[in-house]
Amino acid sequence: MITVIICSVNPDYLAAVTQNIANTIGVPYELITVDNLDSGRGICSVYNEAAAIAKYDFLCFLHEDVLFHTQQWGHIICKLLSDSTIALVGVSGAVYKSALPGSWVDCDKKHYRANTWQHQPATNIAERVQLNPKQELFSEVALIDGVCMATRKTVWQEHRFDDVLLKGFHGYDFDFSLSAGTAGKVVVTHEILLEHFSSGSFSYGWLKDTLLLHRKWQHALPRTVAVPRVSDPYSDYVAAVSLLSHLLRHKGFKKSVIHYYRMLLLKYFHHNRFRFTKTVMKYLFFHQTIQ
Known about the structure:
alpha/beta, Nucleotide-diphossugar_trans, Glycosyl transferase family 2, 6-stranded mixed β-sheet, globular
């Protein structure tokens, strides 16, 4: 019923999740793992290669540093994907995606939908994240996190991961959410509880890929479930602050720093005031980045 696909770089994590899947999935499945420790291929290329040889109709692209806490979770995935109006299923995401570059978390937190145990990098303490304000079995969202993404093979065949644009390990979830979302609903299930042992990496590579993706999808953003193409000003402000913070961590983005700092001053002054002023001046005139 389900082909689980994992791009692996850690044998210990892979061994643990392999056993966990066997103990919890509850439906016939195959596991395709690709050892990417030494080759360093982009995750889009790996996922496309594995999906092409999958024998089942339902595909689950999964990180290896996770554990399922829900028994029979495979039945939940199969039931959701048997609905032809649903194209993509995850365990965390947001109902709004700003037109400004950023990840799914860069919006007002009221837009989050999730059901996870998330380990925090500083403490390694797991935080229960249960965000389901309408008490739904599943929530339609604008995009999902890449930790767990389930779809039909027919959807993947029409909306393959963009391994031409994305050569690294970032942005594939945002890109696939918007692409698969043209084939049907993107949803977060609240019936599956997943524990995730790491958080996202907002590196220079992530920033470059994010900027590329927003140029690709600018015609389709903002994306929102409630009323398409209607912006949420506060979420856009949150996205602008987050983006400027990321830009200031890396050299070579002078024009972008000026652009988004001006945006905060002119469009979001009532929220931002003169925040970032000293940091931006140091970046522009003394080439100082922030940590």
